[in-house]
Amino acid sequence: MSTNELKAKLYKLVDDTNTSRKGIDYLVNYYIHSLGWSEDEAIKYAIKLFEDGVIDEIKIINGKEAD
Hints:
Layout: H1 3-16, H2 21-33, H3 39-51, H4 54-61
Helix pairs in contact: 1-3, 2-3
């Protein structure tokens, strides 16, 4: 899957779950710039956070309702 396809998949998850794009972009950039991951690695990991329910758990902890 190309980087653009990965980004499209990630942003679909973001939009479908009413999650902040700004927050996800910050997270992906953190993985790239602080941890030295490639852009593809960072995006794949962020997608996995959605698929594993971690993002929903974070939203619940922060008082936002998860769908």
